[in-house]
Request: fold
Amino acid sequence: MREIVPDHMEGEQEFFEAAYHGIPPWDIGKPQKEFVRLGRSGEIVGDVLDVGCGTGENAFFLAGLGPVVCGIDAAPTAIEIARQKARERGIPVTFLVKDALNLNQIPRKFDTVIDSGLFHVLSDLERACFARNLADVLKSSGRYFMLCFSDLEPGGYGPRRVTQGEIRDTFSGGWEIRYIRPAVFENRINTAGSKAWLSSIVKIDGKK
Ligand code: SAH
Reply:
């Protein structure tokens, strides 16, 4: 069962589900270039889970490079669209409606988890719960790559901004932060993209 997170916003799931009845600002119809670069550089290895996968573009791109990829999202319409794309493109990615705060529903473990825009929608309390869920679903020495809006992004558009310190606080026990780099989050609002952090984080507990 999902842990009870007191400040979880009940309206959040409805917000995302409704967004996929149109084309949301983050749904750019192609993979985020940061994940294209990571995939091509060979940093993304083994079986991959895309958490908060939306309509699946990052997952499709990585599957095209060879890995077995599974995408999960809490919004049923996003998963429906992703499955439709998988059928049309003939790319064998598994898409499931799942809660990223309840990943132990997935009866297997992954070498790599990617996150394009999920972490920055979580509340402070959800972050700790999410990190525990990630640890459950990653193999020992498994890698987590996360792209989130940065506190350096000006203005009020979009999700909450995240600082490097907040990322380090969330992944302080049982994780090694390999890097947090300035990056770009592409979107349909700002053609130059938004300022982001790309984090590479490794699970180090060695227990699973
Ligand atoms: N990764 C996608 C979508 C980013 S938007 C892309 O790059 O296009 C954030 C996504 O996280 C949305 O699709 C939303 O439905 C999903 N999401 C939000 N909270 C979630 C949760 N608790 N569990 C799973 N998915 C969640």
